[in-house]
Design brief:
Distance between the termini: 49 Å
Helix content: 25-40%
Structural class: alpha/beta
Strand content: 15-25%
Number of strands: 20
Bound molecules: aspartic acid
CATH architecture of the largest domain: 3-Layer(aba) Sandwich
Largest sheet: 8 strands, mixed
Radius of gyration: 21 Å
Number of domains: 2
Shape: globular
């Protein structure tokens, strides 16, 4: 196959796409990248310079944490000038967390970073991995007038390209496993790849890639439910060294108005903590003050998360706590889109 000059780096971190059944336990375990390429001989037909990096060890994505996000971002930064785009092969379970984290780490990104994986291992006849991988590579390579068509951290899965930090995994069964409830797809794939140019973010001309690699994991998520017990809330709030607490609230950011609940939250804020209000709903936005049941949160100093996903909220909070010393700065940037993760300007 005739080569053209396009170079793509595939970063294989693990996930179902490269898994096989362990003979002893019967469970799915990840294996090497060669196993994937053996099942996709079509890769040669692109004519691109395709290179790969395999993480050691490759992981089920449940075992991925900030140290692996840093390793992924470092691999991209180190190879940034040598490649036109990057494809990250990753387990689907925490893919939206990793894609969100990388979107905050790689400021002014001007090249595509496309996460993909599969619901069925690549060795199976009905696998979705082959199509996902081939199209992710095609999107990572897509250029117009000398510039990348989608210079963002995205997830490509089952015919849809979505912004990584807007995406959430919603199905453990369907090939159509991901959803971007509050932001339109960046591209839709059928006979053609239809790019939604108006929804894609392009960096300012001549801006330089800035790499942020600090995370502070002193955060927690408290999902509210009717009947929530004070002992439980206080155990979470009194977690040692806790700096940032996400409360997953009802509807448009509502929570119980019990006195003990509001007092406990206020006390955490008064001793320097940050509380970030993110809705449990899969679509829509937090609007504090709309109902009586969120007005008190606002008065206590809780910060509204607008239409952020749960995955983007926790990675953004860890990122900002790692990046800024002052609570005021963290609160200021929670309210502003860093990489298109929330709607509006801030
Ligand atoms: N458990 C797998 C993972 O996230 C699931 C998948 O890849 O679909 O690594």
């Amino acid at each position: 196959m005739k080569k053209n000059n396009t170079s793509i780096l595939i970063i294989y971190t693990g996930g179902t796409i490269g898994m096989v059944h362990d003979r002893g336990t019967g469970s799915l375990v990840p294996i090497d990248f060669k196993h994937i390429t053996n099942h996709v001989p079509e890769l040669d037909k692109f004519g691109f310079n395709l290179h790969s990096v395999t993480f050691n060890p490759v992981k089920d994505s449940s075992n991925i944490d900030p140290s692996t996000w840093i390793k992924m971002a470092e691999t991209i930064v180190k190879n940034y000038d040598r490649y036109d785009g990057f494809v990250v092969l990753h387990g689907t379970d925490t893919m939206a967390y990793s894609a969100s984290a990388l979107s905050f780490m790689l400021e002014n990104l001007a090249k595509p970073v496309i996460f993909t994986g599969s619901q069925l291992p690549i060795g199976l006849l009905r696998t979705d991995g082959r199509e996902n991988l081939l199209t992710a590579i095609e999107i990572a390579a897509a250029r117009e007038k000398g510039a990348a068509l989608v210079p963002e951290v995205c997830i490509y899965f089952d015919n849809e390209l979505t912004r990584g930090n807007r995406t959430t995994k919603y199905s453990a069964e369907h090939f159509d496993a991901f959803n971007s409830p509050n932001y339109p797809p960046l591209a839709e794939v059928g006979l053609h790849i239809k790019y939604n140019y108006d929804d894609i973010h392009y960096p300012a001309k001549n801006s330089k890639l800035v790499f942020h690699k600090s995370f502070d994991t002193n955060v927690a998520i408290l999902k509210l439910f009717p009947g929530i017990n004070r002992n439980f809330v206080e155990a979470v709030i009194n977690t040692m060294k806790l700096k940032g607490l996400i409360i997953e609230t009802f509807g448009s950011g509502n929570a119980p108005t019990y006195k003990w609940f509001i007092d406990d939250l206020r006390e955490f804020i008064d001793r320097g903590g940050i509380i970030y209000n993110v809705t449990q709903c899969h679509g829509g936005s937090v609007e504090m003050g709309l109902y009586e049941t969120s007005r008190e949160l606002l008065a206590a100093g809780v910060v509204g998360g607008r239409d952020i996903t749960s995955e983007a909220s926790v990675t953004k909070l860890m990122h900002l706590l790692g990046r800024y010393k002052s609570k005021q700065e963290v609160i200021k940037y929670l309210g502003k889109p860093l990489a298109g993760e929330i709607s509006g300007q801030g």
